[in-house]
Structure formats: structure tokens, C-alpha cells
Amino acid sequence: MANFSKSNVPQFSVEVYQNEFLPEGGREVNAIVTVTSTGGGTTGGIPLAGSTPSPAYGPGQGPDAAVVLMVDCSGSMDYPPTKMRTARDATAAAIDALREGTRFAVVAGTHVAKDVYPGNGRLAVADQQTRAQAKDALRKLSAGGGTAIGTWLRLADRLLGAAEVDIRHGILLTDGRNEHEAPEDLRAALDSCAGRFTCDARGVGTDWEVKEVTGIAAALLGTADIVADPAGLAADFTRMMENAMGKEVADVALRLWTPVGVEIRFVKQVAPTVADLTGRRTEAGPRAGDYPTGSWGDESRDYHVCVLVPEAGIGQEMLAARVSLILPDPSGAGAPQTLSQGLVRAVWTDDMVASTSINPQVAHYTGQAELAQVIQQGLDARKSGDFDGATAKLGRAVQLASASGNQDTAKLLSKVVDVVDAATGTVRLKAKVAEADEMTLETRSTKTVRVKK
């Protein structure tokens, strides 16, 4: 695991934004927790292949990392034939972005999974020779067979689990639905892999299932996106790999300690995307629980913590929760390391102005979480033929996107609805919507914008 005495490892900070004042009888406490890791630059201070190394590392060095690239080779990848070629090219581009010394493997995924490079259950070590060999192996890939993504993930887990490294990461590309294994088999594979490696998932074209791809990324704390035009795959794969190479520490947990009598309503990541972590809590001692956050490089994320405190009288105050960033001891024998922490408070007052004021960060992210929810509800209603319900939900989405300045989501919504008045959320459903536009909106619905400080 990363050594925090080294200058190259990010320094973590925790900032808590809240209105701590409650009216008499008030119980709900909301806080936005901003976690920032700094000290690495745009790629976490880690040199990419062929670049000048950071002074913090020797040539080609960085946190030990292993990456498995899972490429869909099912029969549908042959339609059109350019799709398989662009997938091979994109994977080759990602291999070029591997840092020197990174362990890696390529898995061809159909209704079974096969490690096509280096093979025999091994990982290669990235250098000029192994990159060339991997690209030779890619050129031999052809399309044929079905799709059973759970088998791909389990093979990636076996390959990554055999490596003594700090960072374990997967990149998964699919163009179709997971039709050759039961949904519960994929769910079991995700449950088995969760916490063992992170994984970015991409859907290419428009014949795949959005909820499958986004579900994979959510379970494995990675990103999900659509690449509607296969020509964009190489650039996207390069960005994904550069981001993976920028991770400097893995397995960071958000630990929430609460006093006796305090109930936790939810814990959500709210930026850069919305992800509900409430159900992913693991107990960490008396009145404490850990919520997984995955791997970190040089970045900042926001979390929404909501708790219910016992009622108290005017003038009383209490610690509602203590939020800590925790790094477990890799051996499992020692105590975990606390990287940073912040406090959530509750103060009861008879000042109505103070107790009814909503903290701007809390208000903003409550709206962003609702935005993600109503987009999903609106698209589901549209698919089921409930056009009135779809219009109402997507109109509310337009209103929220406009009010919060989420211009990217507003642009995606404008391809599904005609906006009459964004401020009031008055819209009309478009009669015809390109499938790629609808899938892009659904896939990116959880992306948020940061609150304007």
C-alpha cells in the first residue's frame, strides 16, 4: 500500500459545509463533505509512457498498479465490421498509455472469457516489447460468440488478485446486452469483485443496455459512458487509462462515526457523479461504519451526509457525526490510518432565520440528486408509453438543470424534449429522438456540476 511519508502521495483534506442550526424539535442534519486529495498534478504526478518522470519517482516508477482490459468479442462486434477494428485500435491506444512497469493483461470477452495476452493466467509488465506483443495479440482478435460479462469480470479479478500491487483496475468495453448469463450471475460476479478492483465501463454503439453498463461501474466504483460513434473509442480509452495511471492510493473509505441515538438516513457521493453509498456500509467498530470511495489521484469529490439526531432544547448543541478518511492497513494486522476528518454539528436555536436557512451546498446537491432521479424516471415513463408522466419528469429535469447551471445535462435534455420555458420546466416531448441521444442522456444523468462557492 502507498507510503504516506512519501511526498508523491496525495494529502487529503476534509471540509464540512452545513447549517448546523435546528429549530426546537428539529432532528434532520444535512452536511456536504468535500474531500480533496492534492499533490500530484493532472495525472497524479505519475509519468505516463514516454514522458518525463516526476521527481518523486524514479524512471517509469509510481504506485504499483495492474490493469486488465476486457474487450467484447461477441458476434455483434462484426456489425459493422469497423466496430471490431476500432475496438482493437482503442485497446492498443490504452496500452500505449500504460506507465512503464504497470502489470497488465487483455481479456477477450464472449460467452466465455479468455486472457489473450499474455495468457496462462499471468500479467505482463509494461515496456516497449510487451506493448508491441499485446498489440500483435489484439490484431488477431475476431468477433464471434455470445455475451456473458460476469465471466469477464471474474477472470479479471483472478488476474488482478494475483498481483502484489496497490492499484487494481479494469476497463470494460461492450456493444451488446448480457444475454448469455442470468442477471443474478452478473450480480453475483459484481458482488464478488466489489472492493477488489475498480472498473470503468463503456458501451459502444446503441445496442447495449444502459442499466447494465452503469450498474457495473457503480458496483466497482468506476465511470460509465456511451461511445455512440466507435470512431471516438481510441480517445476515450486513452483518457480512461491516463486517469487510471493517475491513481495513487486505493481502498480509501469514508468513515462515519455517530453518537448514541443518532440515525443515519443516507450517505451519497454527489460530485462528480451521484452514487448512493448508504447500502454499502461495512461496520468499523462501535457506532462507526465505512463507505467505500475507491482509488484516488489528484482530485476532489463531494459527499452528502444526512443524519437524524435526538430532539433537544433551545441552546443545546451536540456532535452529530464525525467524518474521517480512512486507509486500511494492507496486511490487515495493524490499525487503519486516518488521513483527515471533519465534524458535523447540531445546535438548537429559537432564531427562525438561522434555523430555516438552507446551506447553499446542501441545496445545490439536493437538486442535483433530484435531477439524476427525475431524468431516469422520465426516460422510463417515456419507454413505457406514459407520455404525460415523461413530460412532467423531464420538464422538472430541465428546470433543475437550468437553475443549477448544469449546461451539459441541459444540452442532452434538449435532444429529447423541446424546451418552451426552462425556468418553469415547460417542455414538449420530441416526436422522434435518436436512440444514441436518449442513451447518452440516461448514461450521463448522474453527472453533476460543482456548487458555485
Description:
- This protein starts with 10 loop residues before the first strand and ends in a 10-residue tail after the last helix.
- α1 runs parallel beside α6 (233-245).
- Helix content is 31%, strand content 30%.
- The protein is built from eleven helices and 20 strands.
- Strands 4, 5, 6, 7, 8, 9 and 10 form a seven-stranded mixed sheet that branches.
- The longest helix has 25 residues, at 360-384.
- The protein is globular.
- The protein is of the alpha+beta class.
Q: Give the amount of beta strand, in percent.
A: 25-35%
Uncertain stretches: 1-7, 40-60
Number of strand elements: 20
Give the mean pLDDT. Answer: 91
Assembly context of the chains: single chain
Quickly list its features:
alpha+beta; single chain; 453 residues; 7-stranded mixed β-sheet; 31% helix; disordered N terminus; 6-stranded mixed β-sheet
Q: What is the gist of this entry?
A:
With 453 residues, the protein is of the alpha+beta class. It contains 11 helices and 20 strands.
